[in-house]
Amino acid sequence: MARNSSNKEAMLTKIRQALLSSVKQPFPQTEATGPVYQTDDEPLDIQFATEFTHVNGHFVFCENEKECVENLKELIGHNQYTRITCYEPELHAMFDRQAFINYDTDAAVQDTQVGITMCEALVARTGSILLSSRQPNGRTMPIYPEVHLVIASTEQIVADIQDGFALVRKKYNGNFPSMLNLNTGPSRTADIEKTLVLGAHGPRAVYVFLIDQFPLKWMHAEG
Questions:
Q1: Three-state DSSP state, 21
Q2: Which of 47, 49, 68, 146 could form a disulfide with 59 if both were Cys (CB 3.0 to 4.6 A apart)?
Q3: pLDDT in the model for residue 6
Q4: What was the pLDDT predicted at 223?
């Protein structure tokens, strides 16, 4: 036991000594200074749609909020979805303007089949949806219902993840939410016989309804 302790102490002593004396970078020219990933000339909305559909997401582009609600009604009717819940006041206002009433505003998440939310950002390079605990949906709505519908603005599309974080900092004035969740398509697993199964640990279907220049209150607030 004493021998093991002695070996451990000797190793820690060497580490401390190494930390005290700085070592010159042997190959400074190999240090990356530019972007890690190759930039893409395609518009961000096209990039996002391409990557999102590659991970089994469903993408719907809408020219305005009226078209968004019409597409929403068609999807719900076609799939005979019931028990639809939305906690977002900004979406409630849009639904009121477009006479969409087939949803609950306060149903318990465990009683919800379809959850409608907004998001913090859409990441074009990975086709991911950035969500946070500061949204009215909290932590559970994006992951508990079997179908997740996200309504977003083209103003929320960013190139990469760090750009999404910057958008969150701007929205909350640097006061980061306690949780950020990066969702990339529906929940999936291939643990059993290497067969892909959707909806294993969350929604089995994820839709993004992207509205062209949908005005977001926090983005256009004065001051």
A1: coil
A2: 49
A3: 81
A4: 45
Alpha-carbon dihedral sign for residues 104, 108, 114, 120: positive
Residue where the block lists tokens 């939410």: 177
What's the pLDDT at 39? 66
Answer yes or no: is pLDDT of 52 > 80.
yes
The candidate with the shortest Cα–Cα distance to 151, out of 135, 134, 174, 169, is 135
Tokens coding 13:
């002593």
pLDDT of residue 108: 92
Find the helix or strand (DSSP H, E) in which 206 lies.
strand 205-211
Looking only at the bridges linking them, the beta strands covering 121-123 and 157-158 are: parallel
Which amino acid, 105? T
Token representation of residue 59: 């993408």
Strands across the sheet containing 147-153: 58-62, 205-211, 147-153, 114-117, 84-86
Which residues share a beta bridge with 131?
181
Q: How far is Cα 2 from Cα 10, in angstroms, rounded to an integer? A: 12
Measure the CA angle with vertex 139, ends 92 and 76; round to 5°: 45
First to last CA, the chain: 65
Residue 199 makes CB contacts below 8 A (sequence gap 6+) with 146, 186, 187, 188, 205
Q: Are strands 205-211 and 147-153 parallel, antiparallel or unpaired?
A: parallel
Q: What gap in Å lies between CA 112 and CA 143, rounded to an integer? A: 11
For the chain, give the number of residues: 223
Tell me the DSSP string of 101-137. Answer: --SBSS--GGG-SEEEE--SEEETTTTEEEEETTSTT
